[in-house]
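pls design
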């Protein structure tokens, strides 16, 4: 079993394979979207993978990852899966196409209006992403202490943008809002840790985190980002 409060520079399935059954309270993640490395402009492109699998292989891979998360999640745990409707070969592909093939129960679909940057005039601009709240049990509840609807707008969950080292970060507030609705859940997994946003939000709220990131540079950057928080805490305490 790997220790918590660390980010491991590992492939997602290799990392998940080292976690025990029923050991995680909450999982929050955003996987690669399989849209190719060039779909975003940014200061740095991913180097360790092409993000361009044949779509059927991508979906099979996602199903394997999601089923592993099902295995490691406690029975009363919850998994928040950030993805979106993608347009490929002239048709829309919904994440439901593979979510329905997993063992998870779909508790709720949350819409994030993030105003992404596709202004192609052949369709209405796709301005939303989704966060699927997935559980093992129908009875699992969250505590909506933030008193929010199932739609979050871009001013609330402000997209991080592309002029940064890691171009596909999700907003820290997305993670803190979710964590706040599970006050008694302590061990949080993000199997595609990226630049460490989930770990940062966990530290801020005193939760334990664990995660994996394949790209060596992003993994080191994420570790440094989390370590910098410790330094800030130390400065504040002095
Ligand atoms: C959408 S980004 C996650 C961003 C993250 N939520 C954040 O806020 O920084 C997806 C991440 O998955 C990583 N990744 C891609 N393939 C992976 C694999 N097989 N195992 C682990 N991580 C992988 C990518 O390097 C990328 O950083």
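designed seq:
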């Amino acid at each position: 079993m790997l220790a918590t409060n660390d980010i491991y520079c590992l492939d997602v399935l290799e990392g998940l394979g080292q976690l025990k059954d029923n050991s995680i309270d909450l999982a929050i993640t955003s996987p690669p979207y399989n849209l190719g490395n060039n779909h975003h402009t940014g200061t740095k492109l991913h180097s360790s993978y092409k993000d361009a699998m044949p779509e059927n292989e991508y979906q099979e891979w996602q199903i394997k990852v999601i089923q592993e998360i099902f295995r490691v999640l406690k029975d009363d745990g919850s998994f928040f899966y950030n993805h979106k409707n993608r347009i490929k070969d002239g048709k829309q592909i919904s994440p439901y196409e593979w979510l329905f093939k997993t063992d998870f129960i779909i508790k709720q679909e949350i819409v994030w209006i993030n105003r992404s940057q596709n202004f192609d005039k052949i369709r209405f601009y796709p301005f939303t992403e989704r966060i699927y709240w997935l559980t093992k049990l129908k009875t699992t509840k969250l505590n909506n202490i933030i008193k929010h609807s199932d739609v979050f707008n871009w001013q609330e969950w402000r997209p991080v943008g592309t002029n940064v080292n890691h171009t596909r970060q999700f907003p820290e507030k997305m993670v803190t809002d979710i964590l706040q609705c599970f006050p008694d859940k302590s061990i949080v997994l993000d199997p595609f840790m990226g630049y460490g946003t989930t770990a940062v939000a966990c530290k801020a709220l005193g939760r334990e985190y664990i995660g994996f990131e394949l790209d060596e540079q992003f993994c080191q950057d994420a570790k440094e980002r989390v370590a910098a928080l410790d330094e800030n805490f130390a400065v504040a305490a002095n």
